[in-house]
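Could you help me review a protein record that somebody else here produced? This is what I was given.
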Amino acid sequence: MRGQIVDIICGSVFVFIGLAAASIAVVRRRSGARLFLLLGVWSAMYGAMQLTQQSIVLQISPHWLQTVAPGANATMTYLVVVAAGLVFRELSLGRFRHLIDAFVLAGLAIAIGGVAFYFATGDNGRLIRYNNLLAAGLLTTLMVVLVVPRFSKKYLVLSNRGVLAIGTLLFAMEALFVNLLRPLGLNSPHLFDHLGFAIYLFSLGYSGLQLVFANERRLLSIEHELTIARDIQNAILPDCAPELDHLRVSTTYRPMTAVAGDFYEFIPVDRERLGVLVADVSGHGVPAALFASMIKVAVQSVAPCACDPKAVLSGLNRTLSGQVRGQLISAAYLWLDTEKRQALYSAAGHPPLLLWRKDKLQHIESNGLLFGVNAGSDGYPVCTIPILAGDRFLLYTDGITEPENAHGDAFGDSRLEQVIRVNHDRPPSELSAQLLSELRRWQPDSLTQKDDITLLVVDVV
């Protein structure tokens, strides 16, 4: 018992550290989690190896554990090099990462062969020499990369490598001594093994925390920039719906992320005439939002021809097509003139305009090419619609119809129509709120919003 107490205590500590690190990594599931998970596995394997080699531990263990302990110990002896290689891989870049992959694959091959020999012959040391040489090569390679500044800057993700370099040097000196000299009959107290491994675990854990803190700072910086981007995008959208004599307008805008690729704009001429534009940039996030902000600038150039949907869309297409660089943009433009009691509508690859009139829902399609397909295209047909009191116009993006439920079924046009029919006598804002509520019910709580949502409702009163 006296001869085994140090190994038992150290083995138990390393198993506890390994389980704690792995548990934190599983709970955290953010930047740096995989490194701590691998460190935890490595530490737990090392500790379990020490425990399964102590006779007093096996004597008080259940019979099944005594039976599997030799095989488990042989397996962990070979796989500990693979675990170490995977830890190093999380800290490496470029060609060094590929070299670590080669070490891991070689270690895995030796482990498979060594374990196979053990179960076939009972000899767990048939390939241990090659395993030790591989471990020595892995440590030597890491030491070279850490010591040579040119290599460490190029092949390691760490900006400050001092603690890891010291820990690796101390552990390598002890490990090289064990792997190369003990087979020759030279021995040292096992406490040195445990101290060397503990120092190395500390240096790796410290390096992992460096990465975590660096990533957290980077994430905070990104979140700050996204907040600014969201504020800028909100600033380019209309502050409120325009007030006209015979029109009531409601807007609903729900970006999927902090910023969105959807865009809408009003071009009010006077209290009787209004232009309404809705656009949807392909993709999501910051790139789509940047192109959406370009539409705001482009709209200013076509505002003088607001009464002509074809001129508006053709002008936007010419302005944007040279800038979008492979992005596609759908758009719909509705011109409303309550004095003449006439509406004009045209679109560029956009979902149809919906018109609720006298208890009937009409789909109005008048599409030309998406923006970005052909800069010279001006083929945007215009549909003329007489305006009647009680009419309700709805312009929207496909984020309304595409959300899927748990079975993968899209919300679809039919359900959108049903919500409009059931709520046709409600004010525009209440219809919009009810539609959003139906969309939330349609999607499971576990699924996040998959697309930007924009809905404009215009009532003729």
